[in-house]
Structure prediction request, 213 residues.
Amino acid sequence: MSVPVYAASSIQATIAASYAAVHVGGNGSPRTIGSAVAFDETHVLTNAHVLRSGGVAVTEAVLVRKDGTRAKARVLARSDRMDLAVLVAPRGFLAPAQRVSAGIREGQPVWAAGSSASGPVSASGWISRTAMNVPAFGPGLVARMDAALGFSGGPVLDEAGRVVGITTALRDVGPAGLADGVRPDQPRPRREVFLISIVAAEAEARRLITAAR
Prediction:
């Protein structure tokens, strides 16, 4: 699924301003492990499972914008309710992303931002379930798209470049998968992607930030 001309500028603008790759690890050579998205001028959201190195929780990470600009960030809090963590970055390093509060529908096209060894990458797909609660991950929704491991913690966007959810878990299902309101002749990504709902993530982030003060 290509990005429509009318949507491309909004999606690209959000990725350029609000997205970052997350690097963790020591010994002077941190490695790309996942992705993140700006919540406000200083706080950044990612998956809690991204902030681990060698099976051990880390207390800081390096954020890398699409243009290659880097900044250190510290882990402010990890949720015990969902796979979510809040980082504190230098003020203004990333711009807060607009978020969707309602109206998500099955079959709605979406685009995800992620990281790879060669730099930022993206994937496209559509929403296949608008509500699912997975105890290990939290409340969310499901999309069909060929995202990869470096997408964890990163934003999934609608056509207006607004955040719908945060990529959290992947499952290979083959081309059949779930009924989702998409034409049967349309190519079908081979993965189901569980997204923490941005509505749930926003509420939990506010709770964590308040508790950390």
Summary: Residues 68 and 119 are 9 Å apart (CA to CA). Residues 17-96 form a domain with the Thrombin, subunit H fold (CATH 2.40.10.10). Residues 198-212 form the longest helix (15 residues). The chain is about 15% helix and 45% strand.
